[in-house]
Amino acid sequence: MFKNELKTIFRNKNNLVYLIIFFIIFIILNFSFNLKLFINKYYDKKINKYIDKCYEIAQKENITTETKYEELVRTIYTSDGKKLTNEQIQNLKHLKYVQDIKTNNIDIPTFQEPITVYCIIVDDWKNCQEIQQFLDIQGISSYIANIDKSILEEYQTTKNFTNIIKYTLFLISLIIFILCYKNIIYNERENIKLLKIFGYRKKQIRKIVLIQLLTLTLIGAITGYIIFRILFILINCLLKF
Amino acid sequence: MEKIKIINGNKEYKKNNEKIKILENINLNFNSNVFYAILGESGIGKTTLLNIIGTLDNLTDGKLFIDNIDISTLKDDEKAHLRMEKIGFIFQDFYLNPYMTLEENIMQPMFINEKYNKKMILDKTNELIELMGLSHRKKHFPKELSGGEQQRVAIARALANEPDIILADEPTGNLNKENEIKIFEILKDLSKNGKCVITVSHSDRVKDFADVIFKFKEGNIEIDENK
After folding, report:
1. Most A-contacting residue of B50, B78, B99, B143 (CB-CB within 10 A), to test interface
2. Which residues, at least 6 apart from A209, have a Cβ–Cβ distance to it below 8 Å?
3. Angstrom distance (rounded) from CA A7 to CA A2
4. Using the beta-carbon criterion (under 8 Å), do B54 and A197 form an inter-chain contact?
5. ipTM (interface predicted TM)
6. How far apart are CA A158 and CA A148, in angstroms?
7. Under CATH, which number does the domain A74-145 receive?
8. Is residue B26 part of a domain?
9. Which domain, by its residues, includes B45?
10. Which of A41, A65, A123, B153 has a 20 to 30 Å separation from B202 between CA atoms?
11. B interface mutation test: which of A4, A5, A203 has the most B CBs within 10 A?
């Protein structure tokens, strides 16, 4: 019973329009639900670039004053100038949130030996405190570099805004879905009438219509998801450069 | 054998708070092996009568019996089952599903008939296609068929569940003379083979084929004595 009815929805060219609408909606929905991920990746890149730039400048100009480093984000600096042992460095590198450790040797004329400052870059500024506690236990004095507040504020606003976008898009999609379903059922009215005349029970007719709608939605969802994954990979590649 | 009986049948509609009487105290009997034609002008209720007999519409007042079953006592799903089992419909506009091939259109009513399995559906479809002389058009879609061929598909579809009653609403309304005669001949043959065939028509040519002719006049039906 359903096989023949399903064939008709694919033969009906009007349904192609709904199929396209469904898969566009699913791409948009996938984007909206992963928007936070994109925002995080974007800001991560932005902040990382910023850190690298600051670090580069600091190394080039051999500037180690706190004012320069204050601008850095998710970075902890050792402050006692002591050299860490290789074992200590390896231990730090293997810590859960640690992304990188950079070493900076600074020559100070009044000191006989250059002092060493280690920059420990953490995956998220929120995790800096945990790493600092670990350093305290290890007897390494340190301070957390402050994040550039403007970037943080911008990041937080954008993050909050993504929630609004997500739910708004979800609501719009839901309305479009309902309208499409209504139209598909309206276009199928002749067939529904015919099934009623043949003696199909209400439950059977409902089942047929539901399966037709679900098939269209499912195809739209699968196509939308595949296209979204491809776009996701492309965007990730673009963000890397 | 008596198939359909209407006792004191009344049908009225409400339009703009005004009651419009379509059928007034109608008493009719329809038997097997008879080809009935209902004649009358447009818009006087012929199709409404056919829809009532086909359990697609209800009488406002009165009783309708099909095979001695009082239709007013049946629920919607029971009526649907009765329609599937006992009634075949033919329409002026053929009413074929444009996205189904000829054979898929004929199969459609059989899918809900519990007495058919998959193989039986295929066999029955092929038998009906052959009966209607449409074997060469099996995989064609309705738009690829002529009007006469489309109506023959509709007749084959109406016969799919082997109903005892065939209701035809202006079956030749969209056909030329040649095809009209062909369709009336098929309907006549069906009645000879035990079916109760009731057709509503504008065409006078139906008089050459029908066994009993009813004339519809202002809500009442009279037998045409000239037949």
Report:
1. B99
2. A185, A188, A192
3. 8
4. yes
5. 0.88
6. 16
7. 3.30.70
8. yes
9. 2-79+92-223
10. B153
11. A4
